[in-house]
């Protein structure tokens, strides 16, 4: 197991650094409830740059997630291919851009946990209630066999 990568986000952006790597889905613990299984990996690229007077990070994620379909509870293969651009700001200035939907901002910190950042961006990018396309779900019975109408039993009790 490798040590978690941490970066000084402002220095990283101002010097135009880049960090590439791969992380297993099992290492992203907050995804656990959404995943049908945790095998697989995500490839990531975190790139720092300046845009005007602003320090920025670009986070690119690619890979496959195995989500749980909210319709049939079966496995749903979900391809991940996303790019996020994040403005780095001091904590006291984050409220300024909170109302602006066009800009995503995070706190500029000297100890930014890259895997936590990747997990945050993935959680924000995944669908809230993933579902198979219409007609692809197989109803699950969990081994239960339903014979006749459940209301037939109630009708029998009524007599």
DSSP helix fraction: 10-25%
**What low-confidence regions span 5 or more consecutive residues with pLDDT below 50?**
none
Q: Which word captures the global form?
A: elongated
Tally of individual domains? 1
Q: What is the H/E string?
A: EHEEEEEHEEHH
Q: Averaged pLDDT, please?
A: 85
Radius of gyration from CA coordinates: 22 Å
* Largest beta-sheet characterization: 6 strands, mixed
Tally of extended strands?
A: 8
Number of helices: 4
The fraction of residues assigned to DSSP E strands is: 35-45%
The separation of the N and C termini measures 67 Å
Structural class: alpha+beta
Task: Describe this protein's structure.
The protein is α+β, with helices and mostly antiparallel strands and 159 residues long. It has one domain (6-141). Helices cover 20% and strands 37% of the residues. It is built from 4 helices and 8 strands. The protein has helices at residues 9-14, 94-98, 114-125, 150-158; strands at 6-7, 18-24, 35-37, 41-51, 54-68, 75-89, 104-107, 112-113. Strands 2, 3, 4, 5, 6 and 7 form a 6-stranded mixed β-sheet that branches. The chain has a two-stranded antiparallel ribbon with strand order 1-8. It is elongated. It starts with 5 loop residues before the first strand and ends with a helix.
